[in-house]
Amino acid sequence: MSNRRWLIGLIVLVVGLGYILSQFILSTMKINELVQQIGHSNAETAQVKYVVLISQELDNPFWREMEKGAEAAADRLGIKLGYIGPIRSNPAEQIRLLEKAITARPDAILVQGMADPGYDQLISAAADQGIPVLTVDADEPESRRLAYVGTDNRAAGEQLGRLVLQDASSNGRIGVIIGSELADNQRLRLEGFRSIIAASPDHEIVDIRSSNISHIGAAQQTKDMLSQDGDIGMIVGFSSLDAGGIVEGIKAAHKEGVRVYGFDDLEITRQGIARGEIIASIVQQPREIGAKSIEWLSSFFNGEKLSDRYYIPTYILEQEASAVGGVRP
């Protein structure tokens, strides 16, 4: 029996490694294909603009929604759009993809901001070559980026903080799961949230951990957090995959009555709200971010002057609104 289990485990491991390798190869092929497409597009006509959208994670639902919004706007405005990204969230891979995109010389690049000096240098290199870079989701305000289109992340953190203070069912001890310690949008959300919580004598942030933009990571960090401090009455997540993972981690820790708040409206988050496992979520509008980014680039191509940034509003999704498909402003 033990040999059989060992064989099954080995087969599962080999299949898993094979899948990861195949995804890496497909990603590399897609990048090379994109470079060729840009070259063909530039050779065919100077009238059609080619824009590259570099995601944080290729198949993350948030970024796929942004791609859909950008694609719809690009089709309407006669712009060609390329979409690439790491298989898993990987800052080093994002930098490599930005380097690749610049080498291919598209007409513009949409990319998530990243707190990295090398990233700023790449954005400057693109600007030197006449390639405008527009940041989305997270800003890179000290760089030479053209503009930022996305959520006002500090304001969204404040919005979540005010929502949490309205919850009278918690003991006020708060655990926090952030998606990444490197992402500027996560840092700003945490800053905004802290500023609101700090003003309340009845609430305290007792633990902060990173999920590494992973449902499994959020679940594990939540379980560990509750194992070390069983008196935490509320856990909030700042990235789209966190809330569902937090619920799973609470169950794994065999805890009850822990209040959960999250970000965005993935199907798992909507289901959790409908079941009462998640109290509410601050929802961004990635399709609007994608669409507005392309619209702004179209205006720029036509010689119009853009402002420094454009904020797409967020809204609150909670149980009553989720049940009827509505939202609370």
From TrEMBL:
Domain Periplasmic binding protein: 52-305
Keyword Signal on entry: yes
Main location: other
Keywords linked to the UniProt accession: Signal
Keyword field contains Signal: yes
Superkingdom per UniProt: Bacteria
Compartment list: Cell envelope
SUPFAM superfamilies xref list: Periplasmic binding protein-like I (SSF53822)
Leader peptide range in chain numbering: none
Similarity section: Belongs to the bacterial solute-binding protein 2 family.
Protein name per Swiss-Prot or TrEMBL: Sugar ABC transporter substrate-binding protein
UniProt organism field: Paenibacillus aceti
